[in-house]
Write a structure and sequence with these properties.
It contains 15 helices and twelve strands. By secondary structure, the protein is of the alpha+beta class.
């Protein structure tokens, strides 16, 4: 047997591939946490945000010893003025200067690192900042608050996303580690923390790395802050897990309620919907089933933006009355029991009718790519005449 194994090159190759894939899997498992440098960014950002200079000083020693450069650490502190305010950033930069001076006295010369490249100015700052923001988040960012205050939208885009995020001495992933860690320690910013966990994942942070990040906050910064951040994170990672039946029985309006089968879930807070909608994830994507199943409840008048799914989508109407429209086709009505196959890469929208809520099950295979979000559905399209009732 032993000899035959080595006489058969095919089998030998199989054995080698098999053992190397085991080694790879083990390596990936071990690496599914933050590196020592990233760990230090968590504590540096957290103590910059909460103003604890003594602990910040210790974290700076750890970070520099782990190989963070002066440029990288400075950039974290500069970025965090947008999340924790100028006073906290200036205090942190002062502490950092002291740490560097002390280390120099002991003969340690820390690596200066790469200075940011000069920012190109071939377009307006607003255009450039909008591009960076869209790239970072994965879709254009819109919201009622930005219509209410166009000034803050402009400053976010021109200043935070262009002047700061446009600098290339920190990548998006590292910037999100810093932002998440700071927000976890600012308090009262659960919505922003939730968004940044999602943006972090979009920019390559894994579930293991985010769990690791939160555990560092719990152990090294504060149990309370860590626990609160963990509650937000676990709701994102296991949406069905901790939620008991949150189905609301009543609307404040006089609109008709459909009978719910599944829990209503969490109110959707992203900018891809008009009106109020709720999502309960019934099946999260995994390596066995390769699909997402969600229960979506639209209140009357609420709808998605135009969008398409690279892997297509199946909609099962399970309550109320809704609409479905593909680009270039007429709007269709959906009633309980209707099944819709949304073809891959075909722009469409779905939502509730104007006076009745709508509940759908959306089955979305994400393997070919995430949903691509487009512009909101105009009232003209939404109110277009039903030609195929
Ligand atoms: Mn869809």
């Amino acid at each position: 047997m032993h000899l035959t194994l080595f006489k058969s090159p095919g089998l030998l190759i199989v054995v080698i591939i098999f053992s190397s894939s085991i080694a790879k899997a083990q390596l990936m498992k071990e690496n599914d946490g933050l590196t020592a440098k990233e760990e230090s960014i968590v504590t540096i950002a957290a103590f910059t945000a909460n103003g604890n200079q003594k602990n910040l000083s210790n974290s700076l020693y750890e970070g520099l010893n782990a190989g963070l450069t002066i440029s990288e650490i400075k950039e974290v502190m500069v970025q965090l003025y947008a999340y924790a305010g100028f006073p906290r950033s200036l205090n942190a930069l002062n502490t950092f200067m002291t740490v560097l001076r002390d280390r120099k006295q002991y003969g340690i010369n820390d690596a200066p690192g790469k200075a940011p490249s000069p920012l190109p100015m071939h377009k307006t700052k607003l255009e450039l900042g909008t591009e960076v923001q869209t790239k970072l988040v994965g879709a254009p960012v819109k919201g009622e608050v930005f219509e209410f205050s166009p000034a803050i939208d402009q400053f976010l885009k021109e200043h935070l996303f262009w002047d700061i995020f446009g600098r290339d001495n920190l990548d998006f992933k590292t910037r999100e580690i810093a932002t998440i860690s700071a927000l976890a320690c600012v308090g009262g910013v659960e919505n922003q923390l939730r968004s940044h966990f999602n943006v972090g994942m979009y920019n390559g942070l894994t579930k293991g790395q985010l769990n690791h990040l939160v555990s560092i906050i719990q152990k090294k910064v504060g149990q309370k802050e860590g626990d609160e951040a963990n509650a937000v994170l676990q709701k994102i990672l296991n949406p069905g897990g901790a939620i008991t039946n949150t189905t609301e029985k009543k609307y404040t309006g006089t609109t008709e309620m459909a009978e719910a089968i599944f829990p209503k879930g969490e109110k959707i807070t992203n900018n891809h919907f008009s009106g109020n909608a709720w999502l309960e994830t019934l099946v999260a994507d995994d390596n066995i089933y390769h699909t997402q199943v969600g229960n979506v409840t639209f209140e009357p008048g609420a709808r998605t933006n135009w969008h398409f799914h690279p892997g297509g989508q199946i909609l099962l109407a399970i309550g109320g009355t809704g609409y479905y429209q593909e680009k270039g086709s007429d709007k269709k009505i959906l009633r309980k029991g209707d099944v819709v196959k949304c073809p891959p890469n075909v722009a469409h929208w779905h939502g509730a009718s104007a006076d009745k809520e709508f509940i759908q099950i959306a089955i979305t295979p994400p393997d070919k790519g995430s949903t691509v979000w487009l512009e909101p559905v105009s009232d003209k399209d939404y109110n277009s005449i039903l030609k195929t009732p």
